[in-house]
Automatic annotation (TrEMBL):
Keywords: Cell membrane, Membrane, Transmembrane, Transmembrane helix. Its main location: membrane. This is UPF0114 protein C5F44_11520. GO terms for cellular component: plasma membrane. Pfam families: UPF0114. The chain crosses the membrane at residues 23-45, 57-79, 109-126, 146-166. It comes from Fuscovulum blasticum DSM 2131. Belongs to the UPF0114 family. It is found in: Cell membrane.
């Protein structure tokens, strides 16, 4: 039978996971902010649609995709983080429940996180390259700025590959039950 002091200490430590709950509520606010910016940008560009060039529409679409991927990232971190570190969702057998909920462990969360970051970085880089066609914006992004955007993107890609390699090595060493499925 464990010592009462030890048992109390362990209960306090276990209960401390609830200190994360306000952070997940903060992510709900961040999701709301992204939704607001998405709607604001959409409402700003819709009236201009008839006068926009196709390149401008593509840039707007990339901006909206970028915001959507960021929102997806917040949602994945919010749901998976809460379920992995605080408590399981007790929402019954909801038909709307995403398939991945309850199945993404910390390793899977890491991979989804880096994949989203790489996608967001790639879209941002593509937007900058497309803006080079616009003479006014081309002056804003010189060769050194584009160089650093490429370096940062490649750093994210390399980080993702190295994280996947570490998960693969861990699975090989300890068995697949320790790697995100």
């Amino acid at each position: 039978m464990p010592n009462p002091v030890e048992r109390t200490f362990e209960r306090i430590l276990f209960a401390s996971r609830w200190l994360m709950a306000p952070m997940y509520l903060g992510l709900v606010a961040a999701l709301g902010m992204l939704t607001f910016i998405f709607a604001r940008d959409l409402m700003y560009y819709l009236p201009k649609l008839m006068t926009m060039k196709s390149e401008q529409v593509i840039l707007v679409a990339l901006t909206l995709i970028d915001l959507t991927l960021a929102a997806n990232l917040v949602l994945i971190v919010m749901f998976s983080g809460y379920e992995n570190f605080v408590s399981k969702f007790d929402i019954g057998d909801e038909q709307d429940r995403p398939d991945w909920m309850g199945k993404v462990d910390f390793g899977g969360l890491k991979m989804k996180l880096i994949a989203s970051i790489v996608a967001i970085s790639g879209i941002h880089l593509l937007k900058r390259f497309m803006e080079i066609q616009d003479i006014e914006k081309a002056a804003v992004f010189g060769a050194s700025e584009l160089f650093w955007l490429v370096v940062i993107h490649l750093t994210f890609v390399l980080s993702g590959v190295l994280m996947a390699l570490m998960d693969w090595l861990q699975a090989k060493a300890y068995g697949s039950k320790y790697v995100g499925k």
